[in-house]
Amino acid sequence: MDLRAYNRIAVIGCPGSGKSTLSRTIAAHTGHPLIHLDYENWSPGWVALPKEEFIAKQHEWVAGERWLIDGNYQGTVEIRFVAADLVIFLDLSRWLCIWRMNKRRSKPRPDVKPGLKDSGFFTKEFAKFSRFVWRYRKASRPKVLALHEQHPNVKFIQLRTRKQVKAFLEDTLTKH
């Protein structure tokens, strides 16, 4: 599969699943403009944009000719899903996602504004976020799969393991 054949790519999945890392790799290969939703949504102190403004920005982005948008945001995922030519769904285990969240804690992330870091492992914020990750498979995953059923014209790739992600990258990046 040649990812350059797709003009509008959405990468979605549970926090900690590797969306931003995968998106940076794909953007480097395809030249697609990369939009990290976490970068766009969060300001210093982890203050979120007003919801209406965030929604309006997403409508503006998806109206573009070429893009790669990385982010979960279940309240707005349909905006990206229906506009995409290709949706890549990282559907990895909750244990792996929580482990990755812990691994990146208190470190700078290239997908958020400078100065923003994930909270440490033993904080209320991390516990709250971990609960979201733990519940993702039951609460959010079914919504993604339902969107896939509702929009069969959108190419949908579901990757469930790190091995599948690696094979996907090898197939899409080394052969083209």
Task: Walk me through the structure.
- The structure is a single chain.
- With 176 residues, this protein is an alpha/beta fold.
- Helix content is 49%, strand content 15%.
- It has 8 helices and 7 strands; from the N terminus they run E-H-E-H-E-E-H-E-H-E-H-H-H-E-H.
- It has a 5-stranded parallel sheet with strand order 2-5-1-6-7, with helices on both faces. It has a two-stranded antiparallel ribbon with strand order 3-4.
- Helix 5 runs antiparallel to helix 6.
- The relative contact order is 0.21.
Chain-wise SSE layout:
Layout: E1 8-13, H1 19-30, E2 34-36, H2 37-41, E3 42-43, E4 47-48, H3 51-62, E5 67-70, H4 77-83, E6 86-90, H5 94-104, H6 124-139, H7 141-150, E7 155-159, H8 162-174
Parallel strand pairs: 1-5, 1-6, 2-5, 6-7
Antiparallel strand pairs: 3-4
Helix pairs in contact: 5-6
Question: In summary, what is this structure?
Answer:
It is built from 8 helices and 7 strands, in the order βαβαββαβαβαααβα. It has 176 residues and is an alpha/beta fold.
* Number of helical stretches of at least 4 residues: 8
> What is Rg?
16 Å
Tell me, briefly, the overall form: globular
Low-pLDDT windows of residues: none
Strand percentage lies at 15-25%
Features:
alpha/beta; two-stranded antiparallel sheet; globular; 176 residues
